[in-house]
What does this fold into?
Amino acid sequence: VMYYIATKGYSEPWANPSLRGRVRVSSSTSTSMEKGKIADILERQATECWTSNNPASWFCINLGSQYAVAPNYYTLRHGCNSKNDCLRNWTLLGSYDARNWDEISRHKADTSINSPFAIHSWPLKCNKLYRLFKIVQTGRNSSHSNFLSLSGFELYGDLYIGKYVIKAD
It folds into this structure.
């Protein structure tokens, strides 16, 4: 889905969709990231990116009013060039209106991400449409700190553009 949006339906070369203004990214570190830029969570190339060392750190991807997704998989990439601060405990939340949030997926002591810039995908059992996705760290990471270290996020599923459905698997 992110790739489809970034390339305007595969019609343009890829560029970070946040930097192009096609989606909005925010984080719990509102003023400045501990490392990297907020938009780095949507980069295709591995880069170091993490929030400040605060409990319940989060990243939010807002697809805006033009897009909605019924997700069936998602992918995260670790945002560090070492195996420090790997994500272990988190929830993936989804919202259509930015007011009401559903828990789409919960992970506790998940060791799937366990190496420098590790990438992993998880299936989702979801039949709702969402426009916003939030990754919230719900416990300490592999280094027993609260840095949320991510430099990659991708969604898979049905992408709705207005009344049209695009299979963006």
